[in-house]
Amino acid sequence: MITGPAISSIPHRPPFLFVDEVIESQERRIVTRTFVDPGADFFRGHYPGAPVMPGVLLCECCLQAGALLLAQRGGGRDPATSIPVVTRIQDARFKHLVRPGDVLRVEVTLDDELDTAYFFTGRAYVADRLALRLTFACTLAHHGEDRGNDA
């Protein structure tokens, strides 16, 4: 599980934290790992008998990795006063089912930035099989602003 400054730099906490470990970090790229807990509550109702991780939560894994990338880059963002919020998800393509007990490797690259708008490509893999590819954008919002959902 990620701990210390890394975890406090994004606004997510269990049970809605989908990053266990940062395994690589560069200025414009991050790679994280997440164990898909078979005991996660969402599996009880998402295809009972043949549980599958919901696609929206796969997207969330990429969004949280992107938020961590922004936090690690700094850029003057103060986590006490601003949070990354998603403003757009595009072209999400689901290629492989993610099941309880799988380990996800999430790779996110920062493709472009304009002021406080950031544009990313995310990919999630199970073993070496692509499970999800998407592009997304986020901005930095001050606490209390309504500009989208948590990234």
Structure description:
It is a single chain. The protein has 151 residues and is an alpha+beta fold. It has a single domain, classed as Thiol Ester Dehydrase, Chain A, CATH 3.10.129. Helix content is 15%, strand content 42%. The chain is built from 2 helices and 7 strands. The chain is globular and about 45 Å long. The mean pLDDT is 88.
Q: How are the secondary structure elements laid out?
A:
Blueprint: H1 5-8, E1 21-26, E2 29-35, H2 55-73, E3 82-94, E4 103-114, E5 117-126, E6 129-142, E7 149-150
Antiparallel strand pairs: 1-2, 2-4, 3-6, 3-7, 4-5, 5-6
Binned strand content: 35-45%
Task: Provide the number of structural domains.
Answer: 1
Radius of gyration: 15 Å
CATH architecture: Roll
- The helix fraction, in percent, is 10-25%
3D shape = globular
Low-confidence stretches: none
Widest β-sheet, arrangement of strands: 1-2-4-5-6-3-7
**Counted beta strands:** 7
Distance between the termini: 19 Å
Notable traits:
single chain; 151 residues; alpha+beta; Thiol Ester Dehydrase, Chain A; 7-stranded antiparallel β-sheet; 2 helices; 7 strands; 42% strand; globular
Question: How would you summarize this macromolecular structure in one to three sentences?
Answer:
The two termini are 19 Å apart. This protein has 2 helices and 7 strands, in the order H-E-E-H-E-E-E-E-E. Helices cover 15% and strands 42% of the residues.
